[in-house]
């Protein structure tokens, strides 16, 4: 037998193995197919329905995306249409009226920074934000000043409200107000003053103490005014309003009352427009009660107008 030829029994053995492997492979595929079919049949009707829904959801993904895009475009067009039709003042209250800036200067004195804890500085920051927002939408916006701006307050504003550097219609100064205003123009608003305001002089510069102290430093703004030799006065709160608490108001409340008075020219209306209910503000006389009723009716009417819009 030559070395180049294989024994017949060896060749037959290999052929048998190949055929055997082919048969094994076919049997395996058949078993897998059978198993899948059995799995499908074993699926409950509920599961098959869920599978179909999932398939439909995937197929309709682009359609949903297109619908959302069309919806956004429609809302944008509606808003644009409302703005264009608001020339008669029916859509935006601000467009109903002509804004006339006041010459009155209103200053928040931020020189008490070292007397406050950080949590109180953060509260002052929020009150200043409220003042800024209210002044921007006021009928008669004041000339708004922040003086002695620095320390913890500035650091907190840089950290949490970096946009303050772009604020408009506000003068933010590191200098003390005495360096910016004439002494004879200054009036410090403090609840401890024996003087009571009856009218606002728009040629004056009124100062609000930028202090959140929870009564830890009673009378400090009054003492500050006396030490600096400048005029001082309190709002006529006690003439019109009975309070459950002390007559010390938050910075933004004083600011907003001034704005409200410039618009309404009525202290009663100004107080009850601004003062929060938690202060327990109640009218002292029948005139004030009548004012309260008028304000409530006005708010109801405005609410109905807003609903109709």
Topology:
Elements: H1 8-42, H2 45-59, H3 61-84, E1 105-109, H4 118-136, E2 143-147, H5 151-160, E3 171-172, E4 186-189, E5 205-209, H6 220-228, E6 231-233, H7 237-240, E7 241-242, H8 251-264, H9 267-274, E8 282-283, H10 286-308
Parallel strand pairs: 1-2, 1-5, 2-3, 4-5, 4-6
Antiparallel strand pairs: 7-8
Your description of this structure?
By secondary structure, the chain is α/β, with parallel strands linked by helices. The protein has helices at 8-42, 45-59, 61-84, 118-136, 151-160, 220-228, 237-240, 251-264, 267-274, 286-308, and strands spanning 105-109, 143-147, 171-172, 186-189, 205-209, 231-233, 241-242, 282-283. A six-stranded parallel β-sheet has the order 3-2-1-5-4-6, with helices on both faces. A two-stranded antiparallel ribbon has the order 7-8. Helix 4 packs parallel to helix 8 (251-264). The longest helix has 35 residues, at 8-42. The N and C termini lie far apart (108 Å). Residues 14-23 have a biased composition (Basic and acidic residues).
Radius of gyration: 38 Å
Residue runs with pLDDT of under 50 for 5 or more positions:
1-16, 298-309
Main pleated-sheet profile: 6 strands, parallel
Q: Count every beta strand, where a strand is a DSSP E run of 2 or more residues.
A: 8
Strand order of the largest sheet: 3-2-1-5-4-6
Distance between the termini: 108 Å
Helix content: 40-55%
Question: Strand content of the residues, in percent?
Answer: 5-15%
Count up the helices. 10
Mean pLDDT: 79
- The rough form would be described as elongated
Structural class comes to: alpha/beta
Order of helices and strands: HHHEHEHEEEHEHEHHEH
Oligomer: single chain
